[in-house]
């Protein structure tokens, strides 16, 4: 089905009214004042449209059925439409099994998802990276157990297997519970290693119930399919009353990240309307990332 969304104020943006042509759960294209052929149209002038929120969850896969459903419902309530779900891997040979388990679990998801892995840092091997490449895993959290782990991993060999897929390796240095001075020193060491070897990395690990930073969305490869309302992107959006959203430019985090939307939509399907959330088991799809970081240098105007 094809239709038009008229008078849409898109966030982030300059506040101009836009027309969106929608087809099969995607944005076909966006225009300003260009006249379009007659289609079914809906007027969006009372709302601000913001992209569906994208968040990370490190424990969802461990939850039993009812708790799993409740967790997903809580995400829908706050306007989250896509999850980066992390499966814990202890050994390289266990990785295919854990990924298959994650896929089985997420078959019942109402939200779209991307799969990442968390692994002890000393288990980050060339073989593990190869397995991640094979299974299209774009995000690897490396958890150190001691301060020495950073110097123990053969990063030169690991780097050789990262290319050409270029998964992001994120060291979770906060796991060590070090004094701030020591943690900053370790972070500096990692930046030197990753910079010298051109290892894609991001040292900011997303917190639960917090929107994933846009720079990381680009690194992982979730953008441009999701994360912004653009031509050819998925039709994932949240609606906020326009009068309440006037302060977006002044305090984006308070209004967009912290507030609950009035409506939330995933690929054209309503997931939340007012106080009602809609269970849509098996509606969620895996977002397969074929080229992490391909758009990571795109101008911040997006």
Give an overview of the whole structure.
The protein has helices at 65-77, 95-106, 126-134, 149-152, 155-162, 180-197, 214-220, 252-257; strands at residues 2-10, 17-23, 26-31, 40-43, 47-51, 53-57, 80-88, 112-120, 139-143, 168-171, 237-241, 263-266, 269-273, 276-277. The chain is of the alpha/beta class and 302 residues long. The strands form two sheets. Strands 1, 2, 3, 4, 5, 11, 12, 13 and 14 form a nine-stranded mixed β-sheet that branches. Strands 6-7-8-9-10 form a five-stranded parallel β-sheet. Helix 3 (126-134) packs parallel to helix 5.
What features would you highlight for this structure?
alpha/beta, five-stranded parallel β-sheet, 25% helix, disordered C terminus, Urease, subunit C, domain 1, 2 domains, 302 residues
Shape: elongated
Averaged pLDDT = 91
DSSP strand content: 25-35%
What is the CA-based Rg, rounded?
20 Å
Number of domains: 2
Question: Would you summarize the structure shown here?
Answer:
The chain has 302 residues and is α/β, with parallel strands linked by helices. It has helices at 65-77, 95-106, 126-134, 149-152, 155-162, 180-197, 214-220, 252-257; strands spanning 2-10, 17-23, 26-31, 40-43, 47-51, 53-57, 80-88, 112-120, 139-143, 168-171, 237-241, 263-266, 269-273, 276-277. The chain has two domains: 2-52 and 228-277, Urease, subunit C, domain 1, CATH 2.30.40; 56-219.
Task: Please outline the helices and strands.
Blueprint (H helix, E strand, L loop, with lengths): L1 E9 L6 E7 L2 E6 L8 E4 L3 E5 L1 E5 L7 H13 L2 E9 L6 H12 L5 E9 L5 H9 L4 E5 L5 H4 L2 H8 L5 E4 L8 H18 L16 H7 L16 E5 L10 H6 L5 E4 L2 E5 L2 E2 L25
